[in-house]
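Anyone opening a protein record will find just a pair of labelled lines. With that in mind, the following record should read easily:
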Amino acid sequence: MQENEKLKIFINVLKRKWWFVVLLGLLFSAGSAYEKNISDNWTVQSGNVVITKTFSIENADRYFSDQSNQKFNFDAFSNTYSMQKKIIKITNESYDYSKFNLNWRNLNEMQKYDWLQNHFSINDFGLGAYELVFWLNENDPKEIEYIKKEAKNFLNDYFNILIVELQKLEPDLKIKVIDEIEVYPTEISLDKNSIIKKYALIGFIAGCLLGIVILLVKEMSFRNGRH
């Protein structure tokens, strides 16, 4: 009986203060709608950025086998920290790395080298054929319009630096580009009005729930103070 009495009292409070609950709901609804309305991001990206360059190096295996008695590992050659340092130093003059990685300015020097190593790789197909790959995961923080404009150029400059360094070891190596591929995320436009309405509804419900909680707490505090 006591619980039923408390429920009846609270229902009566809601009947008297319903305007407070609705007002809080409207305020939250308006705030949520406004926040989404001023957003300029009405597209989502699906898929990764993948840029590749397939090329051949004539007699590369024979030359490096003769010199070191082991198969030449182009990926390891490109991934040394001295090479990464050189690549960043040269390309930093032409490209804004903070567009490729929005957190770039927060990285220390070693983290920048690691980022480059993690986003470039060289696949060895054998017989002197290789594939240089630059990729960005769809969840990586990045500026996609800048990447569409500059990613291929960035990979080409990365490739050219590697070849220059390689030819310092063997000037007579012959390089031939076989194929190039570019893959970019699919961008899906969102319905702005539908998104705003959804967030307005969520804001209204959240505001009403908060209003009910406030009234409940105030009523309980008031009645506890009377006893």
Remarks:
- The first strand starts at residue 43 and ends at 46.
- The chain has eight helices and six strands.
- The chain has two domains: 21-41+190-226, 45-188.
